[in-house]
Design a protein that fits this description.
With 228 residues, the protein is mainly β. It has one domain. Helices cover 3% and strands 67% of the residues. Strands 1, 2, 3, 4, 5, 6, 7, 8, 9, 10, 11 and 12 form a twelve-stranded antiparallel beta sheet that branches. A hairpin with a 2-residue loop joins strand 1 and strand 2. The radius of gyration is 17 Å and the shape is globular.
Length: 228
């Protein structure tokens, strides 16, 4: 999976205590769309939206958004993570040919949402977190079929600070054109991904305490395009 330098730096930091535990699990069945962007060597953005059901309700959709940036002086790094159950009406389209995400993060239910921005001081090795960004995400995905892949059995665990995301994926994927904006910042690519999940699971856990970050593990065939 595509990862930024900042992620690698985080793996070995003993971080400060965090306030609250949170756990969500989504069963992703149906259409999804995702993209990864690295505007410069010190910044990356990734987003996945998928139709799903969850432990907190019935049929829905879910969002997994993350961004990383490393300060030019390399003294700190900041990551934003949003994991949320979103209204089905926010993710529209009858097939992978044309899918649209239109979401205002200020309207998300805080009981089914994690939205935080955390900065790691690389000199003191402490993590400080605050509420994440609120605003509009509007992205349009149009399948182009340049490359098609099948993900037969992909398993991955990602640890960012006190956030742990476990993905187990089976899906059919295709490349797509994508354009739109996130919190007012424009994005465009011809190498986004659209596809259909078959009982894929995405489980998110925010631990209630800091821990050693030498446990960033990847397992599987490396083709989990639907998530990063």
């Amino acid at each position: 999976m595509k990862q930024l330098l900042g992620v690698a730096l985080m793996l070995f930091l003993p971080l400060a205590l965090t306030a609250e535990s949170h756990h969500m699990k989504f069963v992703q069945s149906g259409e999804f769309a995702s993209f990864f962007s690295q505007p410069d060597p010190l910044t990356s953005v990734s987003l996945t939206v998928s139709r799903s059901s969850s432990t907190t309700g019935g049929s829905s959709a879910n969002l997994n958004y993350s961004s990383f940036s490393v300060a030019p002086d390399f003294n700190s790094e900041t990551f934003v993570q949003i994991v949320a159950e979103i209204p089905p009406s926010a993710f529209t389209g009858q097939s992978t040919k044309d899918l649209v995400l239109n979401l205002d993060t200020s309207t998300l239910d805080p009981t089914t949402t994690v939205n935080e921005s955390c900065t790691v001081d690389l000199t003191t090795f402490t993590e400080t977190c605050s509420p994440g960004p609120l605003g509009l995400i509007h992205l349009e995905f149009h399948e182009n079929g340049i490359q098609r892949t099948q993900v037969l059995d992909f398993d991955e665990v990602i640890t960012n600070g006190s956030n742990i995301t476990h993905i187990h994926q089976t899906s059919d994927n295709s490349t797509a054109n994508m354009n739109g904006s996130i919190f007012g910042v424009p994005f465009s690519t011809t190498n986004a991904t659209v596809g259909v999940n078959f009982g894929t699971t995405m489980e998110f856990t925010k631990t209630g305490h800091g821990h050693d970050h030498g446990d960033h593990d990847h397992h599987g065939n490396g083709k989990g395009h639907g998530h990063h």
